[in-house]
Specification:
The complex is a heterodimer of chains A (about 550) and B (about 260). In chain A, about 70% of the residues lie in helices and about 0% in strands. Chain A has about 550 residues and is mostly helical. Chain A has four domains: about 200 residues, no CATH class; about 90 residues, no CATH class; about 80 residues, no CATH class; about 120 residues, Fumarate Reductase Iron-sulfur Protein, Chain B, domain 2 (Orthogonal Bundle), CATH 1.10.1060. Chain B has two domains: about 120 residues, Glutathione S-transferase Yfyf (Class Pi), Chain A, domain 2 (Up-down Bundle), CATH 1.20.1050; about 130 residues, 3-Layer(aba) Sandwich (Rossmann fold). Chain B is about 50% helix and about 10% strand. Chain B has 13 helices and eight strands. Classes of the chains: A mainly alpha (about 550), B alpha/beta (about 260).
Chain lengths: ~550, ~260
């Protein structure tokens, strides 16, 4: 059963790897990628791999894999605590995988006198388990307590942490139950003892009950020193070469202390084999799930490091098209980008998660898959807020060229027909827009100073047109032969007579350069520029309520 | 007294105008002004068109960070300066906004009280360092007496009662700072007007026209070069100026006069 479960999970694992690699070729981040034939991209994927392996690049690749892959220098640059966390989980788990899970294949060949039950292996296995659990605990704590990390963490992040913790915890429990197990003792006796003299076995039982924490269902007299001595000599002959004292498995041994009162029940229930089965199954689930989960970064992130480190200029469009998707796949959803994102506080107010780089990555991937217009709308609006400060790229431990991706995505979304409010507004006249404004109720802003609705704001306006005369936009527009539709003074007049719906879509409001010349020069102290700001805010709120392009 | 500030570079410097950031910091070092970096976010200026509340919250978070460090903010960008000041003004006069912003900040353990100053590089040089102090440090005044046109950057000037930077139409501090280097300055009518960058995305041709009218004005007024003190203005001159006149940032001009190195 175990064997077949392993085969099934291994087949799923391999199929998953192929599935992900096919995606590298299938998906197109931009239209240039889409123009490349899939055959070309398939060849480019292997071609560039081959080119790198046979050239001097191979040395650079190895160096990168050592520093960034094994020592994870990029995570250290991004955050020392996250580096420690990741090193704990990664190295703890890898060592357990190589020397514990694959002990028949590796440990017995490379380690001197290896047996899973002797020191130092007994002790080291527990140490590895503990550091993985410490790493998982810190990671979990960060995801619950850091403001941005808590916001972005999803079921995938938590379930991967849960799976890793589950594997380790069941491992410890299995070890603890095996220590106290009478059944295990009997197996070992029948397998390794030459004699079947009952007196000798009784003596060994006494010795093991006293010093190796085995719980026997039959009571044993542990005060009989002669019996223990006999047991000890048999132990030396048959057991000692393979068994160190269980105290060295310091975690499991402490769990044993908790179990001892219920040992007979636990032994009778055969809980140890049930837990062992769970332990194996969790490992197999992890293996099968790896290519489909964020754990795939074990493959994609080192690959992305290597692509970045390569000094071979990729002129091959097909290779670049693949590289785009591979780099997106390298995201581990750690959230370092969003924690450092310059516009993350805006997300707290506006609430569009596509402002945050860590969330944009998956949105861009689904765009590359050719997905959903509504999701694209959010991505477009979120992405438009990016100020290109480049903090995401600088802090990405996976080395993803995030800013380049946002710029490409921006162009790609525009070519798909999405456009920002400021250009959308010019596609219709102010009077056409008024129809939309009137049909919608927008949430008023959370603060008091709404001035455009207050008639007293414009009460003092005498239509002297000084605002228009000093406006550099009005001047520049007229001198370039493209005069503005309504001047500031005319917009103030519209507002004054209560036609705010009409004012929201005027060119003047949207081409205002916010230099405050009008407001500062107004003899009647009308806050012209502030009103324009407010109108743009309101129009944005209206436009964001509806998919763009519809009136 | 030792001058010390939190340095607020703004989003655009690192990616689009790193030389302004570098030269500002080396200028501060030359003038023995201390500074620290804080994990600042966007000043909120770009989102102000779309959502004033988000803009104010962004600004308030930065100010709260600096308040926590008990330092005034110094920024070399006039748009950052303008928005931080404007948000401070709104928060001072709007208790509802003040409360909602602080509720959000509380999630991160921050509070905004509005008790620090926002300074632009120019106001720091003029008011806190002082012209005499700068003059004392000038080792290599410009012998050639170039005529420099100071391009103010509108967001620091107006609304004057909020910005409190200089006269909204007839400012002088920028020229006075430039003159410490031995260069001459020129009065040009459009020096306090908008460079056009704010409408760059929304209307590129209008944006270019606005810049061109400023440039032509500077040339007509006899300037040899233009000096800016704003990230966005400089980016705009670099994008559309097409080398009609050399355009430098103030920190580079001062550094050259201080150290003799370009």
């Amino acid at each position: 059963m175990l064997k077949y479960s392993f085969y099934v999970s291994f087949v799923i694992f391999i199929a998953g790897l192929i599935f992900r690699m096919v995606q590298w070729i299938r998906f197109d981040l931009d239209s240039t990628s889409a123009e490349q034939s899939k055959v070309k991209r398939f060849l480019a994927l292997w071609g560039s791999l081959w080119n790198h392996m046979i050239s001097a690049q191979a040395v650079i690749m190895l160096k990168t894999l050592f520093w960034d892959g094994l020592l994870q220098a990029k995570i250290l640059q991004s955050s020392p605590l996250r580096w420690l966390t990741h090193m704990f989980i990664f190295w703890g788990f890898i060592l357990l995988l190589l020397f514990h899970a694959l002990d028949d294949q590796i440990s017995v060949w490379v380690l001197p006198n290896y047996a899973s039950t002797i020191n130092p292996y007994l002790f080291l296995r527990n140490i590895c388990g503990v550091i993985v659990l410490v790493g998982v605990a810190i990671a979990f704590y960060r995801r619950r307590h850091q403001l941005i990390a808590r916001h972005i963490s999803n079921w995938m992040d938590y379930s991967v942490l849960g799976l890793i913790a589950g594997i380790i915890v069941t491992g410890f429990l299995v070890e603890a139950l095996q220590i106290i197990s009478e059944r295990q003792f009997d197996y070992m006796v029948s397998d390794y003892m030459i004699t079947d003299d009952d007196a000798e076995i009784t003596a060994l039982r006494a010795y093991w009950a006293k010093y190796y924490a085995v719980s026997f269902s039959q009571p044993i007299d542990l005060s009989n020193s002669q019996l223990l001595e006999t047991g000890y000599s048999i132990h030396l002959d048959s057991c000692a070469s393979c068994h160190s004292q269980p105290q060295y498995a310091f975690v499991s041994y402490n769990i044993v202390q908790l179990f001892t009162p219920f040992a007979s029940v636990l032994n009778a229930m055969n809980l140890e084999s049930i837990l062992l089965m769970i332990h194996y199954m969790l490992c197999f689930i992890g293996l099968a799930w790896l290519p489909f989960s964020k754990m795939f970064h074990l493959v994609s992130t080192p690959l992305n490091y290597c692509m970045n480190a390569s000094s071979q200029e990729s002129t091959h469009m097909a290779a670049t098209a693949n590289a785009n998707i591979i780099s997106l796949d390298a995201c581990t959803h750690c959230g370092a980008c969003s924690e450092n994102c310059s516009v993350a506080p805006i997300c707290q107010v506006i609430g569009n998660d596509c402002i945050l780089p860590s969330e944009k990555v998956s949105a861009v991937l689904s765009m590359a898959r050719g997905k959903h217009p509504i999701a694209l709308e959010n991505l477009f609006r979120g992405n438009a807020i990016c100020t290109e400060c480049n903090q995401c790229t600088l802090n990405c431990p996976s080395g993803i060229p995030l800013l380049d991706i946002w710029k490409t995505a921006k162009q790609e979304l525009q070519s798909k027909g999405l456009c920002p409010a400021e250009s959308l507004i010019h596609q219709h006249t102010a009077f056409e827009w008024a129809g939309l404004w009137q049909s919608q109720n927008i949430r008023p802003p959370a603060f008091q100073s709404v001035i455009s609705d207050d008639p007293s704001t414009y009460e003092a306006c005498v239509q002297c047109s000084i605002c228009t005369q000093v406006c550099p936009v009005v001047a520049a527009a007229s001198s370039s032969g493209n005069p503005i539709d309504l001047t500031p003074q005319q917009v103030m007049n519209l507002l004054r007579i209560g036609l705010k719906d009409k004012a929201l879509g005027t060119q003047m409001v949207w081409t205002c350069a916010t230099c405050y010349m009008c407001q500062e020069n107004c003899p009647q102290h009308i806050p012209v520029a502030d009103v324009f700001y407010e109108l743009r805010n309101m129009a944005h709120a209206h436009i964001n309520l509806k998919p763009t392009g519809e009136i | 007294m030792q001058l010390k500030y939190s340095y607020f570079p703004g989003c655009k410097i690192s990616g689009h105008l790193p030389e302004y950031g570098k030269s500002t910091l080396s200028l501060m070092t030359s003038l023995n002004i201390h500074w620290i970096s804080l994990p600042f976010n966007c000043c909120g200026y770009p989102i102000r068109h779309q959502n004033m509340e988000a803009s104010v919250f962004s600004a308030a978070r930065n100010i709260a960070l600096s308040e926590h460090a008990h330092l005034d903010i110094m920024t070399p960008c006039k748009c950052c300066f303008g928005n931080l000041k404007h948000s401070q003004h709104l928060l001072k006069n709007d208790p509802i906004l003040f409360k909602s912003v602080n509720e959000r900040l509380k999630q991160e353990g921050l509070t905004y009280s509005g008790n620090i100053e926002i300074k632009h590089l120019l106001s720091l040089l003029y008011h806190d360092v002082g012209l005499d102090q700068i003059k004392d440090n000038i080792r290599h005044p410009f012998e050639s007496k170039p005529v420099v046109a100071a391009s103010y950057g509108c967001h620091a000037l107006r609304p004057a009662k909020i910005m409190n930077f200089d006269h909204p139409f007839d400012p002088t501090i920028f020229e006075k700072i430039i003159e410490t280097t031995g260069a001459e300055t020129v009065f040009w009518p459009k020096r306090s007007e908008c460079c056009g960058q704010p409408v760059f995305d929304r209307n590129p041709s209008l944006s270019r026209a606005l810049l061109q009218s400023k440039l032509s004005d500077a040339i007509q007024s006899g300037a040899d070069m233009i000096c800016t003190a704003c990230t966005y203005c400089q980016i705009q001159y670099d994008a559309f100026g097409e080398k009609q006149l050399p355009v430098v940032v103030i920190s580079q001009l001062l550094n050259q006069a201080l150290t003799g190195r370009k």
